[in-house]
Design goal:
Largest sheet of chain A: 5 strands, mixed
Organism (chain B): Hibiscus syriacus (Rose of Sharon)
Number of domains of chain B: 1
Number of helices of chain A: 37
Structural class of chain B: mainly alpha
Helix content of chain B: over 70%
Number of strands of chain B: 0
Pathway (chain B): Protein modification; protein glycosylation
Membrane topology (chain B): Multi-pass membrane protein
GO cellular component, one term (chain B): oligosaccharyltransferase complex
Family (chain B): Belongs to the DAD/OST2 family.
CATH topology of one domain in chain A: Rossmann fold
Structural class of chain A: mainly alpha
Oligomer: heterodimer
Number of helices of chain B: 4
Number of strands of chain A: 13
Largest interface: A-B, 35 and 41 residues
Strand order of the largest sheet of chain A: 6-5-7-13-12
Helix content of chain A: 55-70%
Chain lengths: 791, 117
């Protein structure tokens, strides 16, 4: 008969049409992902277009120098490198104190390209590493969100992450810093963890450990992973979601992850000895106890299980108390309870300002203001709560992880501006989920109510004909588009229950399903308007992201520009000064400056510096700070004892550059005063303020920083008006006795001075006053009274 | 007195029921359990040795203990995946579980050999 034949023919075409649609969806997803990668790469190229392909800021210059060394000398010399060009005379063990992930990645890319005979320079590879890895990060976000909620949410989250300004700020082309690859490693590790949790496959657990190893290599923020995952495991156990997949996801990660973390020289034995890792060990023990309890519960009868519980509780409690007492004694014996300074400053936001002024002085470590949230994650800030609610409907292991991730990252981003970066992927994932669910609901309502497509009876027939092979052929072809659209929309719901349904009960069930759909559907006009508004919201987000990338985050900060009526001014003073140093001084000359400029000086000027941005030795920085705050002679003696030949100061008073050394002076005083008590901050303050005008204190007017910044400044405009402090300076006419000016850049932004050689003959016999100043200056004595340490 | 006796009886009854329940597990799982026990025992011996002799070189001690703990954990994972009573893993062929186990062990021991020093 015609009817069954067409039905049997119709069902396969229905099925193949379904697979064609799925295949079409897959291909479309692939091309969308490709476009997202291209978008992520190109939105970060503004600085290359506006300025040039140059490395930005301060830290990237160190990474660039390390990468240069790696590409020139090879990996064995890199691991064993002792750098004697920084922290003179202490030096720095680069192999053991740098996170090697970024440099190894860029070095590998450079080596690969060069072996393929594509001769890119190391600088080009370094500049473009960050945009490439941001493309990878958005693909990793797609994979992670797909595991949590599905492909639609994945694509939305990926496109949000490709453009989110907070991530752009740390990964523009030229920002060659650890976060460029670390964020990709973070998201990828989380993806593999969720994948292992969902599938329970040991293969993904192995991959998870390897991805965690890459994260440990790349960034100190890996402690976030090794604390978040145990927290999530604990959450799952406490909420009754323990399963054997959880054990497989967590236990191998701890063992393999700890071993791999201990392999990285920077971490070393800290992987088992510092408090940052104790959470993972504690939860490791807890999950074993829980697994054992579940196993015993499975093989015993309930009565016997109760007996076992009472026995174990009585005995185990005593043992537990003893162990905990020992542990507490061990931990309490260390002054910081085993935590490192940086981690403590995260947990207790006031810790750094009380105890570690260097950490407190970095501007990135300040708490963010409310507008910075809107600037950095924009629209996502109010999509996140909707996403959190969507994660609860339904709550799975993976979505509980997302909720925990966003909660903790919001807290930490509130402590430090720098950690807004960790908030960005979490915000993108939750907002992607929220947007995807909203789009689903709205488009579903629209499709359900489009006039002339479906009524209740036709819906019945279409659905049952897909389940059974019996003929409802007339409506089948008409229902095909409606049915498959429902298929695609409700892809996430289980299809199994529809296939196993009997015909009469199918009709009843389907009727209630159709009823449900009709009740859930929103009014047609409202959903159409909401859809439009959501798209407009996305447009606002895109416009803001592009603006932020172009205007706010693309400044290389080594080259400055300003617009005035005469056009565009370019201030290239930093590179001018470094190249002067490179060409006009000896290779072994030492340069002293504030620690901000250390990395740039070693990388671009290729001269030895006293302190640099690594800030690992507080006393050495305090020595330089004391020298900058002391009068000329004392400062000369300190610098002479450090073999310094040149002193570099940054001065913004002529052009209005606000981040100059005079503005950083309060930190020099504070840090110096923290170690050398003869530097007292109130000596420099007038009415609680640092002033450099005529009301300034005499200590301030005589200190080295003031003199080196304002020497001959009055010659520029006759009145010595400082454009940053907006006042005329106090002491205008003075001479330098122990330093001589050797170079000042075009806009007076960098000034280089040379230490004058010690006099051959000292006039008069007034050695007593000299010995008083030399004993009051800090660590090393020099000049007339040199004590022989061997007597 | 009576409470002690009854608790002793309880303990004995518990012990018996545990024993009989465990005897019912299949042989391949018992072999894996034996392997886990051996690994944990080896780890304990290493800890006792370190406590008596001292912890230098620390990386060797760490890699030794963690390799034992690691193989124990991976064997437990294998046992979970191969156990026929586990509903979540009934679609997983035991050969695949064993292949994953071997791969993870390979990675673990590669890292151990590197860290042993």
């Amino acid at each position: 008969m015609a009817a069954p034949e067409t039905s049997t023919a119709a069902v396969p075409t229905l099925h193949t049409n379904n697979t064609v649609r799925n295949a079409f969806g897959g291909v479309l997803s692939f091309f969308i992902l490709l476009l997202i990668g291209v978008l992520a790469f190109s939105i970060r190229l503004f600085s290359v277009i506006k300025y040039e392909s140059v490395i930005h800021e301060f830290d990237p210059y160190f990474n660039y120098r390390v990468t240069q060394f790696l590409t020139k000398k090879g990996i064995y010399d890199f691991w064993n490198w002792f750098d004697d060009r920084t922290w003179y005379p202490l030096g720095r063990v680069i192999g053991g104190t740098v996170y090697p992930g970024l440099t190894l990645t860029a070095g590998t890319i450079w080596w690969l390209l060069n072996s393929l005979n594509i001769p890119l320079s190391v600088e080009t590879v370094c500049v473009f590493t960050a945009p490439i890895f941001s493309a990878f990060a958005s693909w990793a976000t797609y994979l992670l969100t797909k595991e949590v909620k599905g492909a639609g949410a994945g694509l939305t989250a990926a496109v949000l992450l490709a453009m989110v300004p907070s991530y752009i700020s740390r990964s523009v082309a030229g920002s060659y810093d650890n976060e460029a690859v670390a964020i990709f490693a973070l998201i990828f590790t989380f993806y593999l963890y969720i994948k292992t949790l969902n599938t329970g496959s040991l293969f993904y657990a192995t991959l998870n450990s390897i991805a965690y190893f890459y994260m440990v290599c790349s960034w100190g923020g890996y402690t976030f992973i090794i604390n978040l995952i145990p927290m999530h495991v604990l959450l799952c156990i406490v909420t009754g979601r323990y399963s054997s997949r959880l054990y497989i996801a967590y236990a191998p990660l701890v063992v393999l992850g700890t071993l791999l973390a201990a392999l990285v020289p920077v971490v070393g034995f800290n992987a088992v000895m510092t408090s940052e890792h104790f959470a993972s060990f504690l939860v490791f023990i807890i999950i074993h106890v829980v697994a054992f309890v579940y196993y015993i519960k499975g093989i015993l009868s309930p009565k016997m299980f109760k007996v076992a519980v009472t026995l174990v509780v009585s005995v185990g409690l005593a043992v537990c108390c003893a162990v905990i007492a020992v542990l507490i004694a061990l931990v309490a014996s260390s002054p910081t309870k085993g935590w490192s300074g940086r981690s403590l400053s995260l947990l207790d936001p006031t810790y750094a300002s009380k105890y570690i002024p260097i950490i407190a002085s970095v501007s990135e470590h300040q708490p963010p203001t409310w507008p910075s949230y809107f600037m950095d994650i924009n629209v996502l800030a109010f999509l996140v709560p909707a996403g959190i609610i969507a994660c609860f409907l339904p709550l799975t292991d993976a979505s509980s992880f997302v909720v925990l991730y966003i909660a903790t990252s919001v807290y930490f981003s509130g402590v430090m501006v720098r950690l807004m970066l960790v908030l960005a992927p979490a915000a993108c994932i939750t907002s992607g989920i929220a947007l995807s669910e909203a789009f689903d609901a709205l488009t579903g309502s629209i499709k359900f109510q489009l006039p002339g497509v479906s009524t209740d009876a036709e819906v019945d027939a279409g659905e049952t004909s897909s389940d059974t092979t019996e003929a409802q052929n007339d409506e089948v072809k008409a229902e095909k588009p409606e049915e498959t659209s429902k298929d695609r929309r409700s892809k996430k719901s289980k299809k199994k229950e529809r296939e196993h349904v009997e015909r009469p009960s199918a009709k009843a069930k389907v009727k209630t399903k159709a009823e449900k759909k009709r009740l859930l559907a929103l009014p047609l006009e409202a959903s159409a308007v909401s859809l439009l508004l959501l798209i407009v919201l996305g447009a606002f987000y895109v416009v803001h992201c592009v603006w932020a990338a172009a205007e706010a985050y693309s400044a290389p900060s080594i080259v400055l520009t300003s617009r005035s009526r005469d056009g565009l001014h370019v201030f290239d003073d930093f590179r001018e000064a470094y190249s002067w140093l490179r060409h006009n001084t000896d290779v072994d000359d030492k340069v002293a400056s504030w620690w901000d400029y250390g990395y740039q000086t070693t990388a671009m000027a290729n001269r030895t510096v006293i302190v640099d941005n690594n800030t690992w030795n507080n006393t050495h920085i305090a020595t330089v700070g004391t020298a900058m705050s002391s009068p000329e002679k004392a400062a000369w003696e300190i610098f002479h004892s450090l073999d310094v030949k040149y002193v570099l100061v940054v001065f913004g008073g002529l052009v209005g550059y606000p981040s100059d050394d005079i503005n950083k002076f309060l930190w020099m005083v504070r840090i110096g005063g923290g170690v050398f008590p003869h530097i007292k901050e109130p000596d420099y303050l007038r009415d609680g303020q640092y002033r450099i005008d005529s009301q300034a204190t005499p200590t301030m007017l005589n200190c080295l920083m003031y003199k080196l910044s304002y020497y001959r400044f009055v010659e520029t405009d006759g009145k010595a008006y400082d454009k940053v402090r907006r006042t005329e300076i106090g002491k205008k006419y003075f001479k330098l006795t122990h330093f001589e000016e050797v170079f000042t850049t075009h806009h007076w932004m960098v000034r280089i001075y040379k230490l004058k050689a010690p006099k051959n003959r000292i006039r008069g016999k007034t050695k007593k006053s000299k010995s008083k100043t030399s004993s009051s200056s800090s660590s090393k004595t020099s000049g007339t009274k040199k004590k022989n340490p061997w007597h | 007195m009576a409470r002690e006796k009854s608790s002793k009886d309880n303990a004995q009854a518990l012990f018996h029921s545990l024993r009989s329940a465990y005897a019912a597990t299949p042989v391949n799982l018992k072999i894996i359990d034996l392997y886990v026990g051996f690994a944990v025992f080896t780890a304990l011996i290493q800890v006792v040795y370190m406590a008596t002799v001292g912890s230098f070189p620390f990386n060797s001690f760490l890699s030794g203990v963690l390799s034992c703990v690691g193989t124990a954990v991976l064997a437990v994972c294998l046992r979970i995946q191969v156990n026929k009573e586990n509903k979540e893993f009934k679609d997983l062929p035991p050969e695949r579980a064993f292949a994953d186990f071997v791969l993870c062990n390979l990675v673990l021991h590669l890292v151990i050999m590197n860290f042993l020093g």
